[in-house]
Write a structure and sequence with these properties.
This protein has strands at 8-12, 15-18, 21-26, 29-35, 40-41, 47-51, 59-61, 67-68, 73-77, 82-83, 88-90, 95-106, 113-120, 123-132, 139-149, 154-161, 165-167, 175-180. It is an all-beta fold. The strands form 3 sheets. Strands 6, 7, 9, 12, 15, 17 and 18 form a 7-stranded antiparallel sheet that branches. The relative contact order is 0.23.
């Protein structure tokens, strides 16, 4: 790359180029890297994966009550954007964020429904997902959307059901992801 075969050269400020990559750094932290094969990496880009452990127990939800899903354990949190105390993601900067949730539900009866939605700064956001049970087993409901956020906006996931039900605990059961995409 740039006719170089070994070592790195500082081109401008924190920009370095070497045989295998171009890196842009701020305060000695790589902010962007372009690999020799063209893959662009943003190692400091906001990304969160969290799940509901709830002390190893399922979480009970009362009928016809919007309830915030208590995601209390993080798996990955690149920028420290997720607060497990208040179960919310806070956008570190303006942009578009891909938000995805998977919730396993038990206790709904045949033909009973549930709704899942995201809230921004305490206000309901469209769209939402609705699921109606077929049978009396458990169901896994997934939902994703892109949400415009300003720096400091917070996002939460809420759920509602026609009857009492439980959210199944565990990483493979009830998880949420947030990633800045633009």
């Amino acid at each position: 790359m740039l006719g170089m075969s070994t070592g790195n050269v500082v081109l401008i400020g924190g920009l370095t180029a070497g045989a295998n990559a171009v890196n842009i750094q701020t305060a000695a932290t790589t902010a962007l890297e372009i690999e020799s094969h063209g893959i662009v990496s943003l190692p400091k880009q906001s990304y969160v994966e969290a799940y509901m452990d709830n002390g190893g127990s399922n979480y009970s939800v009362s009928a016809t009550t919007w309830t915030k899903v208590p995601f209390d354990t993080t798996v990955t949190d690149v920028q420290g954007d997720f607060d497990t105390t208040n179960n919310r993601f806070t956008a570190p900067e303006d942009g578009k964020y891909l938000c995805q949730v998977k919730i396993n539900i038990t206790g709904l009866s045949d033909q009973q429904g549930c709704h899942i939605r995201f809230y921004r700064n305490g206000a309901v956001l469209p769209p939402s997902v609705t699921h109606r049970m077929s049978g009396t087993s458990y169901v896994s409901v997934s939902f994703n959307c892109v949400i415009d956020c300003d720096a400091g906006d917070y996002l939460e996931c809420w759920i509602w059901g026609e009857t009492d039900f439980s959210i199944t605990h565990g990483r493979d059961q009830t998880s949420v992801w947030f990633a800045k995409i633009a």
